[in-house]
Amino acid sequence: MEKLKTIASFDLPYEAHFAKAKLESEGIKVFLKDELTVQVDNFISNAVGGVKLQVFERDVIKSNEILVEAGFLKPKNIESDLYESNLSKLTSRIPLIGRLGFEIRILVILAVLVIAVLVPIVLLSLPSKTELITGETWYLNIIRYNGKYYKPQTNELKLVLSNGYSENIKFYEDGTVRMPGFNTPSIEAKWKLENNKLVIFDSDTLNYIYDGSYDLNVNSNSISLTSKSTKIVGRIGRVHIF
Fold this sequence. Notes:
Elements: E1 4-10, H1 13-25, E2 31-33, H2 35-40, H3 45-48, E3 51-56, H4 60-69, H5 75-91, H6 102-125, H7 129-134, E4 137-140, E5 143-145, E6 148-150, E7 153-154, E8 159-161, E9 167-171, E10 176-179, E11 182-184, E12 187-194, E13 197-201, H8 207-210, E14 212-218, E15 222-226, E16 230-235, E17 239-241
Helix pairs in contact: 4-5
């Protein structure tokens, strides 16, 4: 059903009827809203917005032109109506939202535009995987290898988390990584990101444990590395010297 559009309002009912008669003489279907309310008490006309002259949306532009020419409206009074009518016609052609009310269509369009602007900004502001990996020292106490759990023991000065975690993995931007030893000094190796995998290679010792291609899951608080044989889970936290 085609919607009605208020194109003018009048304080007195007879003024609305003169304008209505003029439009109907031009073959335009016209409706009056709140006429009876204003007739009962003219003093509440302002409260209800007067007697509203309404036409179908398809007749808005023509009706405004007629009322301006006849002196019922001033040209400056119809500029916004003409703009809104054209915008209404344009947005009514948009799939999915075209059948919604004009105001709702505008709100939906504005929301989509805001999202379209904000989402790229948010995504661009997020740290990359490389930044996440190299931005922290990752602490752990257990490494799983071939289904069994082992506790690494690095023979070096260590930092200890408040929860007792002492071993750590540190990735560097130059492509090197330091990993826990097993009753040995820390292990030095190389790393790279390749096809959404984290690859560790060229470990100076214990290469059978550490070297491999890992599924990577990393955020600002934790890192998880899983290869065919090895699983490493690390996290950040406060430390003190041990």
